Amino acid sequence: MWLAIMRTISLLLTIIFFFCQPTYCxxxxxxxxxxxxxxxxxxxxxxxxxxNPDSIDSLYKLGLVYLNLHKDMEAQEAFKKxxxxxxxxPEAKWGLAELLRRKHDVGKSxxxxxxxxxxxxxxxxxxxxxxxxxxxxxxxxxxxxxxLKVIGKGRERVDLSNYMRAYLIIxxxxxxxxxxxxxxxxxxxxxxxxxxxxxxxxxKPDSAAVMFGLGSFYLLAPGIAGGDLEKAAEFLKKAIxxxxxxxDSYVRLGQVYKVKGDEKKYKEYLNRALExxxxxxxxxxxxxxxxxxxxxxxxR
Length: 300
Hints:
Elements: H1 2-19, H2 30-37, H3 42-51, H4 56-68, H5 72-85, H6 90-102, H7 106-119, H8 124-136, H9 140-153, H10 160-180, H11 183-190, H12 193-203, H13 208-220, H14 229-242, H15 247-260, H16 263-276, H17 281-287
Helix pairs in contact: 2-4, 3-4, 4-5, 4-6, 5-6, 6-7, 6-8, 7-8, 8-9, 8-10, 9-10, 10-11, 10-12, 10-13, 12-13, 13-14, 13-15, 14-15, 15-16
C-alpha cells in the first residue's frame, strides 16, 4: 500500500515538474510585494533583475514602483514582460488595466479589471481600480460599495496603501453623494467624509493622496461643516510637494485661488494640471462647464 502511495506521489511530482516549470507556475504574494514596493527604489530592483532577469516578483515590484513614480511606459514594460513569461498572471493584467485607466481608456480598463476580479476575487488592487473607474463615471454608489468591500476584507488581507485608498474613496464618494442628495443625505453622508479621510491619514499620514483628500474637503465643505480655505491651500500645496505629478491637486488648488479671487493663479494651476495629464477628468469637467465633480464660485 505504502509503495503504491509513494509511486503515485512520485508520478504527480514528475507531472508537476514537467508541465509546470517555475517560471510558469509562480503565484505572487501580492500583498507582500505591494508593501515592499512602497519601501523600495527602482535601482535596487533593477540590480536584482541583472542577476535574475526573469524574476516575476522583481518585475512586479518594479512595475509597482514605476506606477508610484508615474513612469507609465516603464511600468507597462515590466507588466508585459511578466505576461510574456507567465501569460495568465492576474496581477500583471491588473497593472495594464490600471495603466489603461490612467490613460482614460476606461472601457478597456474595465473589461480587463472584470476579468481579473472574476479569476482572482481576493486580489484587492483590482477592486481599487474598479472603484476609481466607477467614480470617474459618476457612479458613486457603485464606487462606494466596491471600496467598502475592500475595507470589509480586513487590514490583514490588504496592503497598507490600498487599504488607505479605500478609505479615501469612501470619503470622496460620500462627499459626492451628499452634494447631489437632499438634506438627509447631506447630514448622513456629508458628515462621514472627514472621518474616512482621517482613517486614511492614520494609516499613511504623509501620503499625497491623503493631503489631497484633506485639501479637497476643506475647500468644498461649507463653513458650517468645517470648510477652511487656508487649510485647503496648505494641504493641497503639501500634496503637490509630495507628488508633483498628481494633477488633481493642481486643479483643487486652482479652485482655492478662484474662491480667493485670484483668477490668474486659478488658470495657472488648472493649465498645469492639463499639462501633466491632458485627459484629467477633474480639470476637463471644470473647463467644459459640466461641473459634475463640483466647481466653485468666485470670491466668498
